[in-house]
């Protein structure tokens, strides 16, 4: 079978379904926790809003709400395996914005001063792979037949177009590089 024409409802071998589940159970709760921390930990939403203002995402409050809400929603959707290509597009958009606004100037390694882009790129690659392949058999997408008519090519195009398009739209609308950045 040609992978490009395979429906997301195809019966992948058990090992692939298990790996898709494992990736979802890592990425979903990880990104959910990021959103949770923005709202309920540290400086809470007000502190997050101030940080967004400082990195050039203005208005900070609106961007803090959008980022945390997206992280919480994407986290739940990925964990359950619901609307997976769309959730992965949201994650891709978040990571591209994070790379452009915070991490690219710090190089590749996350251990670099200020945190490099390695972690965000890793999540981007996982989002693109998961968005393309779909959530697998152990997901609500599969159980409910959501997006069953979509091919892996459709999944890839949707994940890339909405992810990169969403990131570009947010950056063009809200990002103003801080002086000296």
Write up what this structure looks like.
The chain is an all-alpha fold. 69% of the residues lie in helices and 0% in strands. The chain is built from seven helices and no strands. It has helices at residues 14-40, 44-55, 60-80, 84-103, 118-133, 140-144, 152-174. α1 runs antiparallel to α3 and α3 (60-80) packs across α4. The longest helix is centred in the N-terminal third of the chain and has 27 residues, at 14-40. The model is unreliable at 1-8 (pLDDT under 50).
Low-confidence stretches: 1-8
* Rg computed from alpha carbons, rounded to a whole number of angstroms: 17 Å
Q: What is the straight-line distance between the termini?
A: 49 Å
Query: Main sheet?
Result: none
Global shape: elongated
Judged by helices, strands and strand pairing, the structural class is mainly alpha
Kindly state the percentage of residues in helix: 55-70%
Q: What percentage of the residues does DSSP assign to strands (E)?
A: under 5%
Per DSSP, the total helix count is 7
Oligomer: single chain
Order of helices and strands: HHHHHHH
- What is the averaged pLDDT score? 92
Strand segment tally: 0
